[in-house]
């Protein structure tokens, strides 16, 4: 039987999944050592190794789709479905965080003073850095959409520069979130409010950083002429992910910043 006579892609044997699995295990062990013993050597080395593994894995996928022609229309259909399911799982992850938030805020317990935010917690002004970050992320959604429109119009130079603008806005968002955390009047250990606040905004911030890395890879691929107006699945996936980050932030701003003020 000739296995090559089909439109699907049989993935070749790769060491990266098992390497990444062990690396993630060491990463979480390093986080425990960092939290409890202030020993950060394992977590830093694990993060560096994870970046190297992801680089090699991403390189192989780009090679398969761009140079080897493995990403046929059938494969791209399944990859799109996989990305949709991944984003759906991320939506339910944030739903669990919002569920915890409303569970504590709609009926505050006596342990936190029957009030929300709990007594002693000074919440951020939602019309300060949070509103600025909202404008930044909404603007980045517009620039990434313009970048996609330019690509499907065969205007790759405009697509590249619009994508660079999106990446810069993402970095600005992360910088202002760092400033906000640095000036925070409460910590993650200050009652359930502090835990929920930093978990939700922190995980969203991590998603912004991951999305920015995704977009930087796409910008490099545009520069190297990897995409065409009909074949740019990696860029489409990055756009979906970035719009997902934008929409989640609107809920974060409305419920956690504005409603709690």
TrEMBL record:
Residues 4-261 form the Heme-copper oxidase subunit III family profile domain. It comes from the Eukaryota. Keywords: Membrane, Mitochondrion, Translocase, Transmembrane, Transmembrane helix. One of its GO terms (biological process) is mitochondrial electron transport, cytochrome c to oxygen. The keyword Signal does not apply. Its main location: membrane. It is a multi-pass membrane protein. CDD domains: Cyt_c_Oxidase_III. It is found in: Membrane. GO terms for molecular function: cytochrome-c oxidase activity. It holds the Pfam family COX3. The chain crosses the membrane at residues 12-34, 40-58, 79-102, 129-147, 159-176, 196-218, 239-258. One of its GO terms (cellular component) is membrane. The keyword Signal does not apply. Belongs to the cytochrome c oxidase subunit 3 family. Component of the cytochrome c oxidase, the last enzyme in the mitochondrial electron transport chain which drives oxidative phosphorylation. The respiratory chain contains 3 multisubunit complexes succinate dehydrogenase (complex II, CII), ubiquinol-cytochrome c oxidoreductase (cytochrome b-c1 complex, complex III, CIII) and cytochrome c oxidase (complex IV, CIV), that cooperate to transfer electrons derived from NADH and succinate to molecular oxygen, creating an electrochemical gradient over the inner membrane that drives transmembrane transport and the ATP synthase. This is Cytochrome c oxidase subunit 3. It comes from Rhynchium aff. brunneum GX.
């Amino acid at each position: 039987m000739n296995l090559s006579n089909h439109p699907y892609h049989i993935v070749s044997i790769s060491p990266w999944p098992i390497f990444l699995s062990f690396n993630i295990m060491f990463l979480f062990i390093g986080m425990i050592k960092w939290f409890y013993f202030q020993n950060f050597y394992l977590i830093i080395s694990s993060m560096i190794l994870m970046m190297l593994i992801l680089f090699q894995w991403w390189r192989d996928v780009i090679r398969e789709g761009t140079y080897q022609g493995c990403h046929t229309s059938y494969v791209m259909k399944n990859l799109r479905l996989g990305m949709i399911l991944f984003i759906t799982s991320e939506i339910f992850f944030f739903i669990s965080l919002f569920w915890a938030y409303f569970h504590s805020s709609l009926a505050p317990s006596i342990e936190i003073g029957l009030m929300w935010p709990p007594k002693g917690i000074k919440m951020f002004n939602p019309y300060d850095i949070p509103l600025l970050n909202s404008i930044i992320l909404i603007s980045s959604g517009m620039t990434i959409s313009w970048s996609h429109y330019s690509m499907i119009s065969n205007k790759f130079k405009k697509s590249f520069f619009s994508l660079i603008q999106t990446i810069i806005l993402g970095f600005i968002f992360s910088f202002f979130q760092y400033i906000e955390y640095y000036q925070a009047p409460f910590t993650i250990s200050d009652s359930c409010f502090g835990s929920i606040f930093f978990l939700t905004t922190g995980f969203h911030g991590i998603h912004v950083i991951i999305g920015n890395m995704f977009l930087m890879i796409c910008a490099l691929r545009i520069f190297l002429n990897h995409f065409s107006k009909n074949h740019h699945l990696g860029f489409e996936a990055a756009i979906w992910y970035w719009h997902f980050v934008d929409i989640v932030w609107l809920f974060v701003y409305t419920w956690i910043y504005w409603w709690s003020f």
